[in-house]
Design goal:
The complex is a heterodimer of chains A (286) and B (331). Chain A is mainly α and 286 residues long. Chain A is 73% helix and 0% strand. Chain A is built from 15 helices and no strands. In chain B, the strands form three sheets. Chain B has a six-stranded mixed β-sheet, with helices on both faces. Chain B has a four-stranded antiparallel β-sheet with strand order 2-1-4-5, with helices on one face. Classes of the chains: A mainly alpha (286), B alpha/beta (331).
């Protein structure tokens, strides 16, 4: 029978499980996000560097193709921690830009028209909601960070052989953990900015501010005061030190890696606390 | 047979900031599975919405307890939410989403399988009268349409309890009637238990079987409207066919007063204590056939005003007198 003739009938069939309900929001959000042309363009652009890396890996394993460039080319083409550090930095910048472009429609529309009370009147907690929204960004950013990173790593492992993998397996793990930490931090900061700042342009500027202006402020602070701890306020420098630590690279100078881990935890906990406070189904004015 | 109350409150206290909004409410409302409606009445700021939001787990309980369908609101919030539908008072939608898409998401979040959610979204939108507008974005809807969309999302998953917060707010008379009709239908045909929060006495009176009146965070009155309906039948509208020329005199003999409005229509005022059977017998003796009979009840307003302290017991007799005078004026 056609729907318009059917009339209302109470649904009394089986209901889906918690995980299935949790994935409802990310599913529809990914669909919405990928309908934005700019997001698709950025996603494609973000694939260029990994493609370049794949070519690089291929060449480093076929040095005989570059005989004409001299013997020094072999050292230049070495696949090591530095190679993956640069990869993570490049893709990390793309991740910030992609977050700014794609994430605006995640939380702001729910807040601006009071849709949160409809979500939370269903079997969906605040933690579920935050997790669902995080999954949207994490899923999207994974496409340009750790997934191509692991792809490059797998390709290198396949071409260089078991001995290379046995010596460098930690690089793959580092790319995965390092990228995941970075995209988690970006997502949390971005969601917090969008939850608090209703105007799109202001929210975008504030995200840029956290990642780029703080970088400049921390550098100036370090230079003026002659210290290194100002870097703890700079997410990019903090993650850089952690990446260095994970990849086994010893940087020339800068704050301690352990301190950076603590700073990162604080940077993640703060937005989470702010988000949980902001994402209430009803505003209480006391 | 179920005997679980829909809502069970025991010395419920809710504090928001420095202010105690609900100040020790205790009551048992409705019986699960009976398809009865409970009305929450009270002036603005009485704590009606706070009570609803507490039942939904949106506000923390500072003392006492609240149970919905036997589940504790603090520890079993998820179980409660899986069995209820909620229509909030304020705007609640995503402006740039079509109604059908929005409802589909809400259905899936409530636990409907993907295909069922889409089917139900269409079905419910047609049912509430938004079938033709279901592919329009919610931001373009009028206030009345938004209210209907909110109702649609609350009944989409076939909840056992439907909590409606001021459902007729901002509706024109026709839309209001349609909304009340839909709510009654959910109650009577689909056996949902309704909790209706409103400051409009008429709405509560038309839909609810039981009512509690809140004032300044306290429960000031609890009434069973069904019983009230049985006891308050002083005003009767009657429509008969046949020769009714002697009806006025016959009514007078029984102590009632009636006036003809033409075409067999009568308005009758019963004296206190007189039963409806008398009218049936009287009409039968006159060889008249009853086509239409309605009780007129003006009691809820009186109960409400008395409960919130706007009507002294001494004023009540005056009110009754005025009511009678008004009835006489009408007659």
């Amino acid at each position: 029978m056609t729907v318009y003739r059917r009339g209302y009938n109470r649904y009394q069939g089986p209901i889906t499980g918690r995980l299935s309900r949790l994935l409802v929001l990310p599913k529809y959000s990914w669909h919405r996000v990928l309908q934005q042309r700019l997001v698709v363009i950025l996603l494609i652009m973000a694939m260029f560097y990994p493609l370049g890396c794949i070519a690089f890996v291929y060449l480093s394993n076929h040095v005989e193709l570059l005989k004409g460039f001299g013997s020094g080319i072999k050292d230049f083409l070495e696949i090591d921690g530095n190679f993956f550090l640069i990869f993570m930095h490049v893709q990390g910048i793309f991740a910030i830009v992609l977050t700014i472009v794609s994430g605006q429609k995640l939380i702001a529309p729910d807040l601006s028209n009071g849709a949160l009370q409809l979500y939370f009147s269903r079997p969906l907690s605040r933690a579920d909601y935050v997790l669902a929204r995080l999954l949207v960004l994490l899923g999207l950013l994974s496409l340009i960070t750790w997934i191509p990173g692991l792809l490059v790593f797998s390709l290198q492992s396949g071409m260089a052989g078991w001995s290379w993998f046995a010596q460098n397996w930690n690089l793959g793990l580092s790319v995965f953990i390092g990228s995941l930490l970075w995209i988690l931090l970006i997502s949390l900061i971005a969601l917090t900015c969008w939850a608090y700042i209703r105007r799109k342009i202001m929210a975008e500027l504030s995200i840029l501010g956290v990642f780029f202006v703080l970088n400049a402020v921390a550098t100036i602070g370090n230079n003026v005061l002659g210290v290194t701890w100002a870097s703890f306020f700079n997410p990019r420098q903090v993650i850089d030190r952690i990446w260095n630590g994970l990849l086994g690279i010893t940087p020339e100078s800068g704050p301690a890696v352990f301190g950076c881990w603590i700073a990162l935890m604080v940077m993640m906990t703060l937005p989470l606390m702010i988000l949980t406070r902001k994402l209430r189904p009803v505003e209480v004015v006391s | 047979m179920h005997t679980t109350p829909i809502i069970e409150l025991q010395d419920l206290r809710v504090r928001l900031g420095q202010q105690e909004i609900l100040q020790g409410i205790s009551c048992c409302l409705g019986v699960f599975g009976t398809g009865k409606a409970v009305g929450l009445l009270g002036p603005n700021g009485a704590g009606k919405s706070t009570l609803i939001l507490t039942l939904l787990g949106f506000h923390q309980i500072s003392a006492g307890s609240a149970r919905v369908l036997g589940h504790d609101c603090r520890s079993h919030s998820r179980e409660i939410k899986a069995r209820i539908g909620y229509m909030p008072e304020n705007e609640a939608f995503i402006a740039d989403m079509t109604a059908v898409h929005f409802l589909r998401i809400m259905g899936e979040l409530s636990g409907l399988p993907q295909r069922v959610a889409l089917e139900k979204a269409h079905e419910v939108l047609f049912h509430v009268g938004l079938g033709e507008a279901r592919y329009r974005t919610l931001g373009t809807y009028s206030l009345g349409m938004k209210q209907m969309a909110k109702l649609a999302q609350s009944i989409l998953h076939g909840p056992e309890v439907l909590i409606l917060d001021e459902p007729t707010n901002g509706l024109d008379p026709a839309a209001r009637l349609r909304m009340l009709k839909l709510i009654r239908e959910m109650k009577e045909e689909h056996h949902m238990n309704i909790v209706l929060c409103s400051h409009l006495l008429r709405d509560v009176e038309e839909v609810c079987d039981e009512v509690i009146i809140l004032d300044e965070g306290r429960l000031v009155h609890q009434a069973n409207l069904e019983e009230e309906r049985h006891t308050n039948r002083r005003f009767i509208e009657l429509e008969v066919t046949g020769d009714d020329s002697e009806l006025a005199d016959a009514l007078k003999e029984e102590g009632a007063e009636g006036v003809s409005e033409g075409s067999g229509r009568w308005r009758i005022v019963f004296p206190p204590g007189m039963e409806l059977d008398v009218l049936w017998q009287l009409v039968a003796r006159q060889n008249l056939a009853i086509h239409h009979l309605t009780h007129r009840r003006d009691s809820l307003e009186e109960i409400f005003l008395k409960a919130v302290g706007h009507l002294d017991p001494s004023e009540q007799s005056t009110s009754e007198l005025t009511e009678k005078e008004t009835a006489h004026d009408r007659l």
